[in-house]
Specification:
This protein is of the alpha/beta class and about 180 residues long. The chain is about 25% helix and about 40% strand. The protein has four helices and eleven strands, in the order E-E-H-E-E-E-H-E-H-E-H-E-E-E-E. It has helices spanning about 35-50, 90-100, 110-125, 135-145; strands at about 5-15, 20-30, 55, 70, 80-85, 100-105, 130-135, 150-155, 160-165, 170, 175-180. It has a six-stranded mixed beta sheet with strand order 3-4-5-6-7-11, sandwiched between helices. The chain has a five-stranded mixed beta sheet with strand order 2-1-8-9-10. The longest helix is centred in the middle third of the chain and has 15 residues, at about 110-125. The model has no long low-confidence stretch (mean pLDDT about 95).
């Protein structure tokens, strides 16, 4: 019998001073049985950094032709494709052809450096791709906030991200690895 996803609810308040975006989002995150809390919280952080009305979560790890997050225009065309983790270069090349903008949010300390060193030349040729890295210390603090029901406040200013909840707070600054 297959294991089922664990459902997490997040009430996320986004105050993005860099983009002038202020909104509340009631989110439901399905954590795949093989997904860690760190990856789920990285998806949530990627959502906060790109929050918009039409941004939504993909179907998850088991669906290869969908990103972790994406935004469609009113015609159904993909405007933004967002992957979290260390995606395969072929996957990102394909996404680049299907979407107006491709974003990658990598995490995992040393693994990020190795992944970027192996793929930076090929990914650098994709004009609509930008790759970011989440620092391990900030991700550890963010992961500590994971709970089945979360009330999070996320403030973004000058590239710095602060996330707070009743369980504590986390601060991190995503690092641009490369891209347009």
């Amino acid at each position: 019998m297959a294991l089922k996803a664990t459902i997490f609810k997040a009430d996320l308040q986004v105050c993005d001073l860099d983009r002038g975006y202020y909104a509340s989002h009631a989110l439901t995150l399905a954590r795949h049985p093989s997904e860690t809390d760190e990856r789920m919280m990285a998806r949530l952080l990627a959502f906060a950094l790109n929050a918009q009305e039409r941004l939504g979560f993909g179907r998850g790890l088991s669906t290869e032709d969908e990103p972790d997050l994406w935004r469609h225009d009113l015609t159904g065309a993909i405007e933004q494709w967002i992957d979290v983790g260390l995606p395969d270069e072929r996957r990102l090349r394909k996404a680049s052809g299907r979407s107006g903008e491709v974003l990658v949010y990598a995490y995992g300390a040393r693994a990020v450096e190795l992944w970027w060193n192996q793929n930076s030349a090929a990914l650098g040729r994709l004009a609509n791709l930008r790759a970011w890295s989440f620092p391990p210390e900030g991700m550890a603090a963010l992961t500590a906030l994971a709970a089945r029901t979360m009330r999070l406040t996320c403030t973004i200013q000058d590239g710095q991200v602060w996330v707070g909840s009743d369980a504590g707070e986390a601060s991190l600054e995503p690092v641009l690895l490369g891209g347009a």
